[in-house]
Amino acid sequence: MPDFQFENMFDGLVAGVDEAGRGPWAGPVVVGAVVILDKNLDEALLKGLDDSKKLSAKKREHLYDLLFAAQQNGQLKIGIGEASAAEIDNLNILQATFEAMRRAVKALNVQPDMALIDGNQNPKSFPCPSQTVVKGDGRVYSIAAASIVAKVYRDRLMAALALKYPYYGFEKNAGYGTKAHIDGLHRYGVISEHRKSYRPIQEILLQKSA
To answer: Fewer beta carbons under 10 A from the terminal one: N or C of the chain?
Structure first.
């Protein structure tokens, strides 16, 4: 379970940073950044925070709402950054994720003294000093919070995208390569939200042009 051990290692404001959506074939990659200003958070929020992948969709949604309520109360700051499918194709997914991280930290509207980034890859030219934490979303409160923000925000974005493009099952698969998504690609083709640098999408484009 997460705790404040890593945040307590540093003086000043510490931001937790995590991403959602590196693997899907469509949609942006989204990064959440969270600075916890007041560690006396609502007990339900602290007890619930964990790696977003371990939580049910209903639980994630509830915690997401609690996080934004805490922001309204001045207890934390939330920043969200995105990199589009076109940027992913132009930069590659790793560099696009790094760019979304920079945008998320800048969107906090406070200057962190340190950023704790989930994983083992540290972006260069970051807005503040940074340190990676392997499996940080299950170890660090601020990273766990960031993982929930990124995941829920992206899922909602993909559900909204499904209203515009109702053929790919985005509201259920969030852009991952499910059967419904593959069927939609074969029937309706590739749209601007697809990551054309990803091999499955490249293969569909080749089939369509053959």
So the answer is: C
Q: Which residues pair with 31 in a beta bridge?
A: 19, 81
* Below-70 pLDDT ranges, the chain: 210
Q: Give the integer Cα–Cα distance in Å for 101 and 22.
A: 12
Model confidence, pTM: 0.96
Amino acid letter, residue 68: F
Fold category of 7-164 in CATH: Nucleotidyltransferase; domain 5 (3.30.420)
C-alpha torsion angle, residues 30, 23, 204, 181 (rounded to 10): -80
pLDDT per residue as tens digits for the range 119-134: 999 999 999 999 999 9
